[in-house]
Specification:
There is one protein chain. Helix content is 38%, strand content 21%. By secondary structure, the chain is an alpha/beta fold. It has a single domain, classed as Formyl transferase, N-terminal domain (Rossmann fold, 3-Layer(aba) Sandwich), CATH 3.40.50. Strands 3-2-1-4-5-6-7 form a seven-stranded mixed β-sheet, with helices on one face. The longest helix has 25 residues. The structure holds 5-O-phosphono-beta-D-ribofuranosylamine (GRF).
Length: 201
């Protein structure tokens, strides 16, 4: 049995897809949804799905390691960042090396880093006139969007696509691929999970 914690700051449409995908899975369970925002819709979503919601304070997250204890008590094996906007502190990166992934709404290394989230990413893609964009699922390290990529999927950007059109295309890719990629990573033996060359697409 693998226990997943989802960290999310916002709406949680990806979190919703992941909850739905694993709902009847006998081996993989979403146990916990953590948010840095007390009123984040993703917390209500967790509750409605019978999943424990948890609010994280900045002080507890960065100045103590209590988050690690919370995860250990719940026997969490894998962390999924789905729109979580805070940088992950080193103690948590170390404890979940090769067992924590993020999804980014662009083809990293393009359009990553601090401030590159949400519509900022899609506006930048539009402004650059790129002919394609997509999603990247990557392991998490101590810097924003720089961990090893494990999966990318692409979509075409038409010259007359607005940033909103681009966002829509990218979100479709996220909703289609994120949960199955998590499932594939969890099916790999531990030693393979830590070796990105084993699952690059
Ligand atoms: C997604 O676009 C994801 O790529 C990014 O944050 C967004 C979260 O959206 N990391 P949602 O809350 O899952 O709808």
């Amino acid at each position: 049995m693998a226990n997943i914690a989802i960290f999310a700051s916002g709406t949680g449409t990806n979190a919703a897809k992941i909850m739905e995908y694993f709902r009847d899975n006998p081996n993989i369970k979403v146990c916990l949804v953590v948010s840095n925002k007390e009123n984040a819709p993703v917390l209500g979503l967790a509750q409605r799905n019978g999943i424990e919601p948890m609010v994280l304070s900045r002080a507890a997250f960065y100045e103590t390691e209590t988050m690690l204890d919370e995860l250990k008590v719940r026997e969490i094996d894998f962390i999924v960042l789905a729109g979580f906007l805070w940088l992950i502190p080193p103690y948590l990166v170390r404890a979940f090396e090769g067992k924590m992934v993020n999804i980014h709404p662009a083809l990293l290394p393009k359009y990553g880093g601090k401030g590159m989230y949400g519509m900022n990413v899609h506006r930048a893609v539009k402004a650059a006139g790129d002919a394609e964009t997509g999603i990247t699922i990557h392991y998490v390290n101590e810097r924003f969007d720089e961990g090893d990529a494990v999966f990318q999927a692409r979509c075409v950007v038409d010259p007359n696509d607005s940033p909103e059109d681009i966002a829509h295309k990218v979100q479709k890719l996220e909703h289609k691929h994120f949960a199955p990629v998590i499932e594939r990573l969890l099916a790999m033996p531990d030693h393979q999970q830590n070796n990105p060359s084993n699952h690059k697409k």
